Amino acid sequence: MLKIQKVSDESFKKYGRVLKDYDTTDIVKILKTTPLPEDVVYEPSVAALETTEIMDYFTNHVYGGLPVQVGYCNGHNHTLNALEYHRSSEINIAAKDLILLIGMQQDMEEDYTYDTAKVEAFLLPAGTAIEVYATTLHYAPCDATNEGFQCVVVLPKDTNLDLVKKPVSAKGEDALLFARNKWLVAHKDSGLDKDGAFIGLKGENLTV
């Protein structure tokens, strides 16, 4: 049984930080108007969320002037299935309580496999904004209630879009490259192998 910790706990500090000074009221209000399907949907860039005020804050106060995209990941989910990482931090903001299953890139083996026994679970309360560090393995959130989840996702522009050019070599870390700025390691039971995902999660496909 996974222990559900809180993003405010000391144990979260190696994975990320809470953005305590950011007022999430307006962005959460917009997020609540977005679709909440029975499965999981991810939209990397959503015009309604990319208002001048929102873009200014994340571009200039979080990403140091880099262009960003603001989208969402919404739906219902109870299973780990995969873990991914970027070369950049990711901002998550919850409109409904949700659970994040996360790990550390430093715990991956030399062959890029990862033992799911090392995954930890954290509750992200509604209205809370966090920075998830680049070295934190993560994927789609899980339900904290039967109402599903709605989560803002802020990343550098073009992250998670289709690759313009796939690496010639599928060896080493190149085998994990699944989209732009997205390295993915999937579980054999996820079905993601049909999409060309690297199967490298060892152990149980965890559920919440």
What would you note in describing this structure?
A hairpin with a 2-residue loop joins strand 14 and strand 15. 36% of the residues are buried. The protein has helices at 25-31, 52-62; strands spanning 4-6, 16-18, 40-43, 68-75, 82-85, 90-94, 98-104, 114-115, 120-124, 129-132, 136-137, 142-143, 149-156, 177-179, 182-187, 198-202. The chain contains 2 helices and 16 strands. The protein has a 6-stranded antiparallel sheet with strand order 2-10-6-13-4-3. With 208 residues, the chain is mainly beta. The mean pLDDT is 96. The protein is globular and about 45 Å long.
What portion of residues belong to β-strands?
A: 25-35%
Low-pLDDT regions: none
Overall geometry comes to globular
**Structural class of the secondary structure composition?**
mainly beta
**SS summary, helix count:** 2
Give short descriptive properties of this protein.
globular; 2 helices; mainly beta; single chain; 16 strands; 9% helix; 208 residues; 6-stranded antiparallel beta sheet; 5-stranded mixed beta sheet
